Amino acid sequence: MTAEAGSSATYNAGCHCGHITFSVTLSPPLPEQQVFNCNCSICRSAGYLIVYLEKDEVEWHNDSRPKCMNYQFNTKKKDQMFCPKCGVSIGIDFRRPKTEDPKGKKAYGISVRTFYGIDLDTLNYQKLDGLNQCADSSLDFVSFNSPDLDLDPDRGSPAVRHNDVIVDGA
Fold it and tell me: Ranges for the CENP-V/GFA domain (predicted)?
């Protein structure tokens, strides 16, 4: 981790074998940054503990992003990224160019399990019940906000948008 000016930090990250390497800049840094622990099928299966990032907050090293293998399901609009050599789950690429993102939608959901040298027991987790709240697999919300709670006008209740699906906030 490299501390930066203000309340941000840069973390080196990658897969187990070193084929995929990158760094992420979080503001606020861990452990103040909220990490999402969702029980939906993909998050459980991949072991995701997710932080959401803009494109410019992720720096792929040695052309690592194209080296990732991608798995798509449901809407086929986002890539579940993993290493083709060791199989480590990296996170989610929402495949949104910043130009198509006027409302601050995040570009990546990166699993903190890929961050080198962090203590997972010290992090600030928000549990999401994606298993029950996202039961309708036909849902395809294109609006993804920061992981902060917001008011969804269609539901009229506090919600968090996770993996492109709205789930109730805790």
Answer: 11-129
Determine the Cα–Cα distance for residues 10 and 24; give it in Å rounded to an integer: 5
CA distance 14 to 47: 15
How many CB atoms lie under 10 A from the CB of residue 33?
Answer: 19
CATH for 2-134, options being 2.170.150.70, 3.40.50.410, 3.90.1150.210, 2.40.340.10: 2.170.150.70
**What is d(CA 151, CA 166) in angstroms, rounded to the nearest whole number?**
11
Does residue 138 sit in helix, strand or coil?
coil
Instruction: Identify whether the C-beta of residue 60 lies closer than 8 Å to the C-beta of residue 22.
Output: yes
Could you give the CA distance from residue 68 to residue 91 in angstroms, rounded to a whole number? 10
Does residue 130 sit in helix, strand or coil?
Answer: helix
C-beta of residue 168 within 8 angstroms of C-beta of residue 133 = yes
pLDDT tens per residue, range 56-82 = 999 999 999 999 999 998 888 899 999
User: pLDDT at position 124, please?
Assistant: 96
